[in-house]
UniProtKB/TrEMBL annotation:
<comment type="similarity">
    <text>Belongs to the dienelactone hydrolase family.</text>
</comment>
<protein>
    <recommendedName>
        <fullName>Carboxymethylenebutenolidase homolog</fullName>
    </recommendedName>
</protein>
<dbReference type="Pfam" id="PF01738">
    <property type="entry name" value="DLH"/>
</dbReference>
<dbReference type="InterPro" id="IPR042946">
    <property type="entry name" value="CMBL"/>
</dbReference>
<dbReference type="GO" id="GO:0016787">
    <property type="term" value="F:hydrolase activity"/>
</dbReference>
<dbReference type="InterPro" id="IPR002925">
    <property type="entry name" value="Dienelactn_hydro"/>
</dbReference>
<dbReference type="GO" id="GO:0005829">
    <property type="term" value="C:cytosol"/>
</dbReference>
<keyword id="KW-0963">Cytoplasm</keyword>
<feature type="domain" description="Dienelactone hydrolase">
    <location>
        <begin position="30"/>
        <end position="245"/>
    </location>
</feature>
<dbReference type="InterPro" id="IPR029058">
    <property type="entry name" value="AB_hydrolase_fold"/>
</dbReference>
């Protein structure tokens, strides 16, 4: 991750001044943000937050965007009450911090959320998207959870699962060309491994000139040249979900 002398690449661009259209609910032992479309549907998407946690307005903005496209969206607190990372935190402590928040150990929470979506929301087709830390979590779930239909990993930290590529479900991987956290060599290697080992549909896409977090973190009006790629990333995500849900 970024060192102390540089800002976190996740911080490039403003946070949305956004309150959210959904509500916070208790789902088993965790809290979650839930938003539902006006008409009933049996399609749902689990949104996995980045290191800044489930209450980040940017992430809720994307959850609500999924709802406007006809999906029940739920963003659970996968840190289970532990504090999210703050921009003011010392980056020298990051590795110790993230060790207690393992993106590959969220299965218990996902099971609780799946039960809630099925029993309380009537969901039958369920996908997952995730950003950064959550993107790594998506890759983990696509490797082992039989109950999810599809996934979109947005700038998921490849190094967390670099030796595992036998995906169970169609998965779309979104990366930025100028991502300081995920070098393009890692993305190239991921593509090679998927080609060798993956039996299901997948796509790896690199967006020109984009930095880490571009789809959900950067405001479209900060750098006008980025706006088309931000919009393209969001549209690609929705199209992938539409195709497999």
């Amino acid at each position: 991750m970024a060192n102390e002398s540089r800002p976190c690449p996740c911080d490039i661009g403003d946070r949305f001044d956004y309150g959210g259209r959904g509500q916070e609910v208790q789902v088993g032992h965790i809290k979650a943000y839930v938003c539902k479309p006006p008409t009933s549907t049996d399609k749902a998407v689990i949104v996995i937050h980045d290191i800044f946690g489930w209450q980040l307005p940017n992430t809720r903005y994307i959850a609500d965007m999924l709802t406007t496209n006809g999906y029940i969206a739920i963003c659970p607190d996968f840190f289970v009450g532990q504090e999210a990372w703050k921009p003011s935190n010392d980056w020298a402590t990051f590795e110790d911090w993230v060790k207690t928040r393992n993106a590959g150990k969220i299965d218990k929470e996902v099971d609780v959320v799946l039960k809630y979506l099925r029993d309380q929301c009537g969901a039958k087709k369920i996908g997952v998207i995730g950003f950064c830390w959550g993107g790594a979590a998506v890759q983990h779930l696509m490797l082992k959870n039989p109950h999810l239909k599809t996934g979109v990993s947005l700038y998921g930290v490849i190094s967390r699962f670099e030796d595992k590529h036998s995906l169970l479900h169609p998965t779309f991987f979104i990366f930025g060309e100028k991502d300081d956290i995920i070098p393009l060599e890692q993305v190239t290697l991921l593509e090679q491994k998927l080609k060798q080992n993956c039996k299901v549909d997948y796509e790896v896409k690199i967006y020109p000139g984009q930095t880490h977090g571009f789809v959900h973190r950067k405001r479209e009006d900060i750098n006008p040249q980025d706006k088309p790629y931000i919009e393209e990333g969001r549209k690609d995500m929705i199209n992938w979900l539409n195709k497999y849900l």
